[in-house]
Design brief:
This protein is α+β, with helices and mostly antiparallel strands. Helix content is 28%, strand content 26%. It folds into two domains: 267 residues, Naphthalene 1,2-dioxygenase Alpha Subunit, Chain A, domain 1 (Alpha-Beta Complex); 116 residues, Rieske Iron-sulfur Protein. Bound molecules: FE2/S2 (inorganic) cluster (FES) and fe (ii) ion.
Length: 394
């Protein structure tokens, strides 16, 4: 299976010609006014990955998500009818937060203040002494946020009337997401972090291989070799606001250490047993959702802006079966920690870049051809902000 088949992949030269090549203003990486425009033009009206269906497996299962840029607390619930819905975690009586638990399972949600009680579908079921109110129960349901599921991933959209369905938003990538192991995942491990960097400074780091040999000398030998010393991708593709790249394969990778080799062997056996052998996919989805297919650890990385110079990251590794043997647990933990080690190596470089950009010392940044994915994100953001500003003026 070629998981990138639906996106038209192009060799570097051809793909780079689709992008601009000049320097770009550094302001969007730190300017608070620009951040506010991005918040309204992009994050308040895009489909955003917020969770996975395996987190809410049964009727009444729920997760709570704080979305700071929207000042929202969202209750994502699987209803008794099996539907996944997203509600504002706000009582319709006088605004109290209904739930404080990060996750759980309930038949109904009662507000602690005056006990208004809602069903898993958000409808107001009961309210003490309701006869003394001059409003109908059916007008007091929890306020919804648009919520759809694709490939096991739960997405929300704060726009009152989303301009695109989730499937239209992803275009050809929708089917690719459904084909990934995460669509069948039953478990995941997660690492959350906060970083003193703009969401684009952070995401850009994961959209280019130019830095591999400098920031990751310990592990880059696997990706960088004589004919491809920077470990550059071999092809790039664009689908609307989304991007993809084909990662290179070192024909003679260095021999891993004995313990790594042992883990890889176990993973290989597990991957074959679970039917998880598939081509590499490396999707950079708009606005800030990174999906890489790596058997048996399906990797995702979601970034949430907290401010012009602050971002929260959520890294997950999805699995399609239980940790039912010591060797499976070992292999999963080892590959997960190996990848997290690499992400930790990136951290200081990202923070350092943010500090430098925010100083205003460099008016422009530069992207070379093999940094065309960050450039595409930059161009996409510019276009959407311009579209938003035109709408506001009209
Ligand atoms: S604020 Fe929730 S019942 Fe009063
Ligand atoms: Fe890196």
């Amino acid at each position: 299976m070629n998981v990138q088949s639906a996106i038209h992949m192009l060799p570097t030269e051809e793909a780079a010609k689709l992008r601009g090549r000049g320097p770009l203003s550094s302001k969007p990486y730190y300017d608070p006014e620009w951040y506010e425009l991005e918040r309204k033009a992009i994050f308040m009206r895009s489909w955003l990955h917020i969770g996975h269906v395996c987190e809410i497996p049964e009727p009444g299962s729920f997760i709570l998500r704080e979305v700071e840029f929207a000042k929202a607390s969202l209750l994502i619930v699987r209803g008794k009818d099996g539907e996944v819905r997203a509600f504002h975690n706000v009582c319709t009586h006088r605004g109290t937060r209904l739930v404080e638990d990060a996750e759980g399972k309930r038949n109904q949600f009662s507000c602690p203040y005056h006990m208004w009680t809602y069903g898993t579908d958000g409808k107001l079921l009961s309210a003490p002494d309701f006869e003394r109110f001059y409003v109908k129960k059916e007008d007091c349901s929890l306020k919804t946020v648009h919520c759809e599921v694709l490939g096991g991933f739960i997405f929300i959209n704060f726009e009152r009337h989303p301009r695109q369905t989730l499937r239209d938003f992803f275009g050809p990538i929708a089917e690719e997401l459904e084909a990934l192991p995460s669509a069948r995942a039953t478990h995941f491990t997660e690492c959350r972090y906060e970083i003193a960097a703009n969401w684009k400074t952070n995401f850009d780091n994961f959209q280019e291989n130019y830095h591999l040999r400098f920031i990751h000398p310990r592990t880059s030998a696997a990706a960088c070799w004589e004919e491809n010393p920077f470990g550059y991708p071999v092809a790039y593709g664009f689908a609307g606001p989304h991007r993809s790249q084909t990662l290179p394969t070192n024909p003679n990778p260095p021999m891993p250490s004995a313990v790594m080799l042992d883990g890889y062997r176990r993973i290989g056996a597990i991957a074959v047993r679970e039917g998880l052998v598939f081509d590499k996919a490396d999707f950079k989805l708009f606005p800030a959702f990174h999906v890489v297919g790596l058997a048996p650890n399906q990797f995702t990385h979601t970034m949430w802006p907290l401010g012009p110079d602050r971002t929260r990251g959520q890294v997950r590794f999805y699995f399609t079966s239980d940790n039912d043997s010591a060797s499976k647990l070992f292999a999963r933990e080892m590959t997960t920690m190996t990848i997290l080690d690499v992400l930790c190596e990136d951290r200081d470089a990202i923070i350092s870049a943010q500090k430098g950009l925010a100083s205003g010392a460099v008016s422009h940044v530069h992207f070379q051809d093999h940094e065309m994915l960050p450039r595409h994100l930059y161009e996409t953001v510019q276009a959407l902000v311009a579209e938003y500003q035109a709408e506001q003026e009209a």
